[in-house]
Structure formats: C-alpha cells, structure tokens
Design a protein that fits this description.
eight-stranded mixed β-sheet; alpha/beta; 7 helices; about 20% strand; about 270 residues
Length: about 270
C-alpha cells in the first residue's frame, strides 16, 4: 500500500494532470493589474497569447479599464530612446479613442494603432492580418457577432503571431461555445451596501465562464474605474450626500415647528 500511495502521489503532482477545480498552469500569465482578477484567472493573469472573449451587458461598465493596466505595461509612456517597436491595436472601437485620457493613464499613444472598419468582413480581415503579423502583442477588438469557425481562425492567428486578442462582444452571444482559452462576462453591479442600503458604486460584476485548465470561477466584483476618475466621482457623490443630509435636516426642522402642542391627557 505504501508503494501504491507513493506512486499515486507522484502522479497527482504532474502538471499535465487535471484534478477538477485544481489548477496547475504550465506558464504564468500577464499581470492584469487587478489582484482579484489575477487570482480567478488561474494563470496569475491574462494568457500570454490567444483569443479572449469579453461579453458586456452594456457600454461604460469598465470594459476598457479592464485592459488599461496591460496596455500601460506593454506601451508605457517613455522617452523616444526607450521605446520599442511593439504596438497595441484597437480594431473597430465603438467610439473614437481619446488620446489625452489614455495618456493620463501612462500609455504611449504614439504606439496605438486605430483601425476603423465599415463591415464585419473588414473587421475580421484586419484582425487576422494584425494578429498573424506579430507586430502587435495586444489587440482589442469590438464585434457584434462571432461564429465558431471565425473564433477558431482568430485563435490560430493569435498562436501564429504569439498575440493576445481581447474581443468585446454583446452578452446575447455568450451562450455560443467557442474554442478559445478564456471567456468573461461583465455586467453592472446590482449589489447593495448593507450599511447605507444604496447600490455599490463604481463596481462591475465579473463572471469567468471559461478558463483553460479549470472550472468557471464564481462571480466576483471589481472596481474598474481609473483611479483619478474614481476619486473625482467619489468626491462628487460625497458632496451630493452632504447636500441631501442638510436638506433633510432643514425639512425635519420645518416640520417639527408645525406640530401642534395641545393639553391632551391620557
């Protein structure tokens, strides 16, 4: 029995053996900049290459902020002598990129490649060319739909060019099964603060629907607003709360002055 136990223990220590919810990554991933997200991604961050699908319930819930720390790491704002040849590409973003805002996040906007396309066919063609070239280690794209064959083709392009592609898709298509290493769903937080009873501010709910080598992760929340913007909005919310409290106190004083005091007895 002792020999059998020893052999079993050696077998369980192998990195290529999947043990249900246990995760043994063969290589570490790219730091996402969010410790909680890194813990749930399993590899300690984003995959170093491959197609990652990010499903968004609506715009403005932190979908771009999710990639900002990685963009800042790959194309940091540096002097001309320190710059490398790598690019970060944005394919078919729903809005015109705002360079000043990205520069405030420490990103070298001169190394951003913005590809504006008109049709889904142009989007997929541009994506495949960029991913295969290997000139852009990170590509962000926004698509309305993606078939299984298209996802497989983009995944192969990522492997050939050793590129990572974060593909933003609407939530309505997340039920389709695609051969990709990572699938994440984002939606605005509906949780409430137990102390104040108000909605939790500036947080996004994250569901990891699929991750290579492990089960889907339980839902968790992330604050995806950039630090400076979050601080500014928090100050605005604090001011509004103080104003509401002052108005409530004044209203209570006015109402208390209108209460009639009479000689009532039990």
């Amino acid at each position: 029995m002792a020999l059998a136990d020893l052999q079993l223990e050696r077998l369980l220590q192998r990195s290529d053996l999947w043990r249900g919810d246990a995760y043994h990554p063969q290589q570490m991933g790219l730091d996402s900049g969010y410790p909680e997200l890194n813990r749930h991604l399993g590899q300690g961050g984003w995959p170093s290459q491959g197609l990652c699908e990010i499903f968004c319930s609506s715009e403005g819930i932190g979908e771009l902020s999710l990639a900002l720390p990685l963009m800042r790491r790959l194309i940091p704002r540096q002097s001309r002598e320190e710059r490398s040849a790598g690019l970060v590409s944005l394919v078919a973003p729903p809005h015109v990129p705002y360079p000043q805002s990205l520069a405030m996040q420490g990103i070298d906007v001169s190394r951003l490649l913005w590809v504006d396309t008109q049709t889904p066919k142009e989007q997929l063609w541009a994506l495949e060319q960029i991913l295969t070239s290997g000139a852009s280690p990170l590509v962000l794209c926004w698509l309305e739909a993606l078939s299984v064959s298209q996802a497989r083709r983009l995944q192969l392009a990522c492997e050939k060019g050793e590129s990572l592609c974060l593909c933003y898709l609407p939530s309505k298509v997340k039920e389709q099964a695609h051969p990709v290493p990572l699938r994440i769903a984002l939606q605005s937080s509906t949780e409430t603060n137990t102390e104040t009873g108000s909605a939790r501010l500036f947080e996004t709910q994250v569901d990891i629907l699929k991750r290579r080598g492990g089960w889907p992760a339980p839902r968790f929340s992330l604050s995806l607003l950039p630090e400076l913007l979050a601080q500014s909005l928090m100050l605005d919310v604090t001011k509004l709360q103080e104003q509401d409290k002052r108005l409530e106190n004044e209203l209570n004083k006015q109402q208390s002055g209108q209460i009639l005091q009479g000689p009532w007895s039990a």
